[in-house]
Specification:
single chain, 309 residues, alpha+beta, Jelly Rolls, 4-stranded antiparallel β-sheet, 21% strand, globular
Length: 309
């Protein structure tokens, strides 16, 4: 049944209270807001969450993320049939919400850069044409594991809005574990967990990287063997900071930086139930260095494959 809320979402429903800023202090801004949307709005979104669409996209895999602006027929049909979800997407993409998020978290976004990069990156962040807000539907199921990672280097802010099924059996499972760097850990020590230890980038000094993307090798089946060497290195560098649980109508988020390591492990998630969420990210366009070096690296990989045959 399609529910048409009499009061569709407005920017004021999304604007965040100033109290969310930096609950846990350094090394990065981590926060969550419970009862994020008014009850009637949340219930309308939950009732019309396109679980069939996501299950169809997922197939036999354990996870799927679907861009609400990918223009495919199934997504367009879904948005055409759901006024509340069209409104939800439009509000997250609105100038009012983007300006609010940048005013609230802009100082923390600036601090993520090494000092010599800050003036340039702050200038780029002030130009709204350089920013892009993405909104993805997300569905994971039992057995999925996303090992510790800091998120894409071009993200500025990562938000997740949980919308579990009614009377979810998750019971505390399905949330996100966040980590903090241990005392005295330096940025160069992080290099071994980043793409700056591979390809052409391993030849460049680390100060050329305005932001790093760190991760352990990702594994999506809990039966897979993780890289023990990477796990040992990660344990030397990071300790658990906080677990943010999978709770209905909770919005959690953080400012992405070199240290924003987090993990999702659904080993004990209920069989048959999907971990349902919306992923909202503010992204900055890649720097000239990344735009120049990435196609060169991709070309070298292709050449290597040809000569290895």
């Amino acid at each position: 049944m399609t529910i048409h809320s009499p009061n569709l979402l407005q920017p004021c429903d999304i604007l965040l209270p100033r109290a969310v800023a930096n609950e846990n202090g350094d090394p990065y801004c981590l926060f969550f807001v419970d009862d994020f949307l008014r009850l009637e709005l949340k219930e309308s979104l939950s009732a019309e969450f396109p679980e069939d669409l996501l299950r169809s996209r997922m197939g036999q895999r354990l996870a799927v993320n679907v861009d609400l602006e990918d223009g495919t027929d199934d997504v367009e049909l879904f948005l055409a049939s759901s006024s509340i979800w069209r409104s939800y997407l439009q509000v997250w993409k609105s100038k009012e919400v983007l300006n609010d998020l940048m005013q609230l978290f802009g100082p923390r976004m600036r601090d993520r850069y090494v000092s010599w990069w800050r003036p340039l990156m702050v200038h780029r962040m002030k130009r709204r044409s350089r920013l892009n807000v993405t909104v993805f539907l997300s569905a994971y199921r039992t057995g999925f594991r996303l090992t510790p990672h800091s998120d894409d280097k071009f993200k500025l802010l990562s938000l997740i809005h949980y919308l579990p099924v009614a009377e979810s059996a998750a019971n505390g499972h399905g949330g996100t574990v966040f980590y903090r760097p241990r005392r005295g850990v330096s940025r160069p020590q992080l290099r071994t967990l980043t793409d700056w230890s591979k390809g052409l980038r391993r030849l460049f000094p680390l100060w050329l990287a305005p932001s790093l993307e760190a991760s352990l090798d990702r594994r999506y089946l809990d039966t897979d063997q993780l890289n023990s060497g990477q796990q040992s290195e990660f344990a030397k560098l990071f300790a658990e900071l906080k677990y943010v649980g999978y709770r209905d109508n909770r919005l959690s988020g953080f400012v992405k930086n070199d240290w924003s390591m987090h993990e999702v492990n659904l080993e004990n998630f209920p069989e048959g139930e999907l971990r349902r969420a919306v992923l909202i990210n503010i992204r900055l366009q890649p720097t000239l260095f990344y735009r120049a070096i990435t196609p060169i690296e991709q070309c070298l990989v292709k050449v290597k494959r040809v000569f290895s045959k």
